[in-house]
C-alpha cells in the first residue's frame, strides 16, 4: 500500500505542477490581417477554426494548426459569421447574417440555409443532446435542426435582450441560458427543464451575463459584464446541488469564461474602467491571479482553452494571443484504475469537515488524503462512510486516494478559505 501511495505522490507532483518560466505568459500568434475576430473553436485534431471579418469587410472562417498554423480560408461567403460550433463528430456550424452554415466533412465542403428569425446578431449556438441546435439571438432563442430548414422561437423576449451562452448541468437535466437585457425585468439566467423547448427566467435578473461554463464537479459559473442598474459585473457561481448563485468576483467586467480539465477557471475581462486582461482561479473561484504578461492591451473579449489558452483582444488590430506554455495539466477530476467502487466526497469545496462515502462494506478499503506537495496528511481504513475534521487543513488543493484490492480511485478536492 505504501509503495502505491508513494508512486501516486510522484505522479501528482508531475501532473499538477504549473509551468514556471521567465518568459511572458502570452505570445502573439501571426495570422492574416483581419478587421475583427468573432469566435474560436478547435477540432479533435487540434485544428483551430476562427471566424473573422477581413480587411475587405467580408466574413470568413480561417483554420490553422499549431505550431506553424499556415492559415487557410475554409469558408468565404461574404457573410459575417459571429459564432462557430464544433460537435463531438467534428461537424462544424457557423451562424451570422440570418444564415446557418454547416460542414459535415471537417470544413472541406459547406452548405447553408437562411434562418430568417435571427435578429441583429447571433452571439451563441449550442448543440443539444437531441442533436438539434439552439441559437441565441436578440429577442429570443431559436430551436433549429442541423441544416437550418426547420426552426422556430422557443423563447421570445424584448428586442433589447440578447442570449449569449448555454450550458447543461451535470446530469443534463437542466439547461441554462445567460442573457443581457438593456431594460428592466429581464436578462440574467434562464432555465429549461425540457431540453430547450420552454424557458423560465430564474436568477440574476437584470445582470449582463456574457458566458457560462461548468467544472468537472458540476459547479456552474457565469461571467457578468454588469447590471441594468449599472451595478457591478464579475463572476457568479452555482455550486452543485445548491439553488442560490454566489457573487464571487466583483472586481471585473467578464466577457468570457472557460474551465480546464483540472478545474482551473480562466476569465477574459474587458477594460471599461476596470483592470481587464485574463484572470485564473486554482481554488474554484475563491481567489484570482492576474496573467497579463505579454498583452499589448489587456482588453479581452474572448477566451478558448484547449492544451493552450487562446485570447482575443478587443479593438483594432484585434490581436490573437496564445499562452507560451500548455496550461491544462494531465490530471482530471477523477482517475480510476480497474474500479467498480463508487465514491462521493462532500461538500465540495469543503471547509472544516469532509465526508466521504463509498458503496462497499469491505473492511480492506483504504483511504489516504495528500496535499498538493504529495505529502500524506490523513490515512486509514474506511467502511462506507467517514467524517474527517479538516479544520486544521490549510486552504488549497488535496487529493483523495481510495484503494480496495485491485481498484483505485483518485479524486481532486479543494478546501476553501
Biggest pleated sheet? 5 strands, antiparallel
Q: Helix segment count? A: 1
On the 0-100 scale, what is the average pLDDT? 85
Please identify the oligomeric state: single chain
Query: How many domains?
Result: 2
* Superfamily (CATH H level) name of the largest domain: YVTN repeat-like/Quinoprotein amine dehydrogenase
Task: Please bin the fraction of helical residues.
Answer: under 10%
Question: How is the largest sheet built, in terms of strand order?
Answer: 29-36-35-32-33
The CATH architecture of the largest domain is: 7 Propeller
Rg calc: 22 Å
CATH topology of the largest domain: Methylamine Dehydrogenase, Chain H
Task: Describe what this molecule looks like in 3D.
The protein has 417 residues and is mostly beta strands. It folds into two domains: 2-10 and 331-415, Immunoglobulin-like (Sandwich); 21-323, YVTN repeat-like/Quinoprotein amine dehydrogenase (Methylamine Dehydrogenase, Chain H). Helices cover 4% and strands 50% of the residues. It contains one helix and 36 strands. A hairpin with a 6-residue loop joins strand 15 and strand 16 (188-192). The chain is globular and about 65 Å long. Mean pLDDT is 85; it is low at 14-22.
Amino acid at each position: 500500500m505504501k509503495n502505491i501511495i508513494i508512486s501516486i505522490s510522484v505522479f501528482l507532483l508531475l501532473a499538477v505542477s504549473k509551468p514556471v518560466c521567465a518568459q511572458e505568459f502570452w505570445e502573439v500568434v501571426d495570422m492574416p490581417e483581419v478587421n475583427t475576430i468573432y469566435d474560436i473553436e478547435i477540432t479533435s485534431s487540434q485544428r483551430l477554426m476562427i471566424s473573422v471579418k477581413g480587411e475587405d469587410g467580408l466574413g470568413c472562417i480561417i483554420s490553422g494548426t499549431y505550431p506553424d498554423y499556415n492559415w487557410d480560408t475554409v469558408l468565404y461567403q461574404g457573410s459575417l459569421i459571429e459564432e462557430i460550433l464544433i460537435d463531438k463528430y467534428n461537424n462544424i456550424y457557423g451562424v451570422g447574417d440570418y444564415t446557418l452554415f454547416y460542414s459535415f466533412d471537417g470544413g472541406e465542403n459547406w452548405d447553408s440555409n437562411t434562418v430568417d428569425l435571427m435578429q441583429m446578431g447571433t452571439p451563441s449556438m449550442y448543440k443539444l443532446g437531441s442533436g438539434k441546435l439552439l441559437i441565441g439571438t436578440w429577442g429570443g432563442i431559436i430551436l433549429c435542426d442541423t441544416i437550418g430548414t426547420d426552426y422556430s422561437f422557443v423563447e421570445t423576449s424584448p428586442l433589447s435582450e440578447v442570449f449569449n451562452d448555454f450550458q447543461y448541468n451535470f446530469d443534463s437535466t437542466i439547461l441554462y441560458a445567460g442573457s443581457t437585457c438593456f431594460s428592466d425585468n429581464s436578462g440574467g439566467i434562464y432555465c429549461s427543464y425540457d431540453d430547450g423547448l420552454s424557458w423560465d427566467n430564474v436568477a440574476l435578473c437584470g445582470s449582463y451575463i456574457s458566458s457560462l461554463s461548468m467544472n468537472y464537479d458540476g459547479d456552474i459559473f457565469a461571467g457578468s459584464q454588469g447590471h441594468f442598474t449599472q451595478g457591478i459585473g464579475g463572476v457568479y457561481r452555482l455550486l452543485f446541488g445548491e439553488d442560490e448563485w454566489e457573487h464571487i468576483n466583483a472586481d471585473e467586467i467578464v466577457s468570457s469564461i472557460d474551465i480546464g480539465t483540472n478545474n482551473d477557471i480562466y476569465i477574459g475581462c474587458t477594460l471599461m474602467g476596470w483592470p481587464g486582461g485574463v484572470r485564473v482561479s486554482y481554488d474554484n473561484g475563491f481567489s484570482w491571479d492576474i496573467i497579463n504578461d505579454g498583452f499589448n492591451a489587456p482588453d479581452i473579449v474572448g477566451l478558448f482553452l484547449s492544451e493552450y489558452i487562446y485570447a482575443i483582444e478587443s479593438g483594432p488590430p484585434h490581436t490573437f494571443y496564445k499562452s507560451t506554455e500548455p496550461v491544462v495539466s494531465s490530471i482530471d477530476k477523477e482517475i480510476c484504475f480497474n474500479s467498480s467502487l463508487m465514491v462521493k466526497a462532500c461538500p465540495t469545496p469543503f471547509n472544516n469537515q469532509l465526508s466521504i462515502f463509498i458503496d462497499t462494506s469491505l473492511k480492506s478499503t483504504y483511504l489516504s488524503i495528500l496535499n498538493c506537495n504529495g505529502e500524506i496528511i490523513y490515512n486509514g481504513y474506511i467502511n462506507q462512510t467517514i467524517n474527517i475534521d479538516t479544520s486544521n487543513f490549510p486552504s488549497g488543493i488535496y487529493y483523495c486516494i481510495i484503494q480496495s484490492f485491485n481498484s483505485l480511485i483518485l479524486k481532486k478536492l479543494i478546501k476553501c478559505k
